């Protein structure tokens, strides 16, 4: 983020709020929210932004104030409230319900121009699927401009926002745990120290409690810096909060069956140019699910598509696999080789998740995989078979 531009935005917004503290919703949108959207790199006067985006809610329809778009797909919903009012739990639930109807929307922002609440469906600690991962006001934005990085167009498109959201979720969870259970944690730590050290001149109970407080303070400080390191490719960013045991567990999983029938060049894939291809991201640890089950899951599906392509993150960073879709079923229908929990990062079977099954003998490795350039799929994204055949890099299909 451009720190100078952010501070100018904050100064201007605070001046407007001091002059008009009872600002109504329409003025809040024009004077505070629209400049905020421009600041994030979304061009308000292009197809990047749709006003009053229609969301179908059962037999009725509602409208979200702003939808931020990648191509023709909404990826962020922004709901604005008057500056004179406070944000409420009912406002949050309203935004959550809108996000739930558009499966391509993984991000939501609720704001009154003074306070901003970010919702994401990318974290593990979910509340009905859409979790509040950060709340900040204008003063905090002015002091820490990088806090807005998670909402920039570049971060959303590249997938960097997913990594920031995951780190925020993990950090928030740890802080809550230390706050809610500080005494039991300190007691366990005291017992460990006594077993290891025996009698000491120190008050181990006091030292343990001080340690818990210091750790919580460190995590809060750490939270302010999440998202500042943006010079790495999004796929190679690793959270310091993932423990070594988790990495080892992922590395140890090996496929006991291989459904890949061979290699194929993209030009040799049969089908109409306008046929739909869903491009899914996966870590290398997710490949066993693909190979063993001739399928992909557990994912939310927003529309019909004919083919699946798999972008492998980590050290691979390319679209490597391709398959023809047979059907999309509920998670309890397919006869999986393993229990879902054994697939590590495929184990989170939530509401509305599906398994995409492939036609027998249709899963191929690509002879000419599509390399990463500057974009990789944030969740799954759609392209056409014609674009897929001719793509030089991931930027051509995302």
Automatic annotation (TrEMBL):
Residues 229-248 are annotated as: Disordered. It comes from the Archaea. Residues 25-123 form the Type I restriction enzyme R protein N-terminal domain. InterPro entries: HSDR_N. This is Type I restriction enzyme R protein N-terminal domain-containing protein. It comes from Natronorubrum halalkaliphilum.
């Amino acid at each position: 983020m451009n720190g100078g531009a952010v501070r100018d935005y904050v100064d201007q917004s605070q001046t407007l709020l001091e002059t008009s503290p009872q600002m109504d919703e329409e003025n809040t949108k024009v004077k505070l929210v629209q400049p905020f959207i421009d600041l994030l790199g979304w061009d308000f006067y292009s197809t990047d932004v749709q006003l009053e985006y229609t969301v179908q809610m059962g037999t009725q329809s509602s409208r979200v104030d702003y939808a931020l778009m990648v191509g023709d797909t909404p990826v962020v919903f922004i709901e604005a409230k008057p500056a004179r009012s406070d944000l409420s739990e009912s406002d949050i639930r309203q935004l959550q319900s809108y996000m739930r109807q558009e499966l391509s929307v993984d991000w939501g922002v609720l704001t009154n121009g003074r306070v901003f609440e970010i919702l994401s469906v990318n974290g593990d600690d979910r509340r009905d699927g859409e979790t509040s991962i950060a709340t900040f006001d204008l003063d905090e934005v002015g002091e820490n401009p990088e806090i807005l990085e998670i909402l920039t167009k570049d971060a959303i498109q590249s997938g960097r926002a997913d990594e920031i959201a995951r780190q925020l979720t993990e950090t928030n969870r740890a802080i809550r745990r230390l706050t809610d259970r500080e005494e039991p944690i300190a007691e366990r730590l005291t017992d460990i120290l006594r077993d290891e050290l025996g009698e000491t001149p120190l008050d181990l109970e006091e030292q343990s409690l001080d340690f818990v407080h210091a750790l919580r303070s460190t995590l809060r400080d750490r939270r302010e810096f999440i998202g500042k390191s943006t010079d790495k490719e999004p796929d190679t960013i690793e959270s310091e909060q993932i423990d070594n045991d988790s990495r080892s567990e992922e590395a140890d999983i090996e496929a006991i069956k291989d459904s890949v029938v061979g290699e194929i060049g993209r030009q040799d894939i049969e089908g109409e140019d306008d046929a739909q291809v869903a491009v899914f991201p996966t870590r290398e640890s997710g490949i066993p699910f693909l190979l063993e089950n001739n399928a992909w899951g557990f994912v939310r599906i927003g529309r019909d598509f004919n083919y699946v392509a798999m972008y492998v993150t980590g050290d691979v960073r390319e679209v490597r696999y391709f398959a023809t879709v047979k059907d999309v079923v509920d998670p309890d229908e397919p006869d999986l080789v393993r229990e879902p929990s054994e697939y590590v990062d495929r184990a989170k079977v939530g509401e509305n998740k599906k398994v995409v099954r492939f036609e027998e003998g249709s899963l191929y490795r690509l002879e000419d995989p599509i390399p990463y350039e500057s974009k990789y799929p944030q969740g799954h994204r759609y392209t056409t078979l014609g674009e897929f055949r001719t793509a030089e890099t991931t930027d051509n299909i995302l």
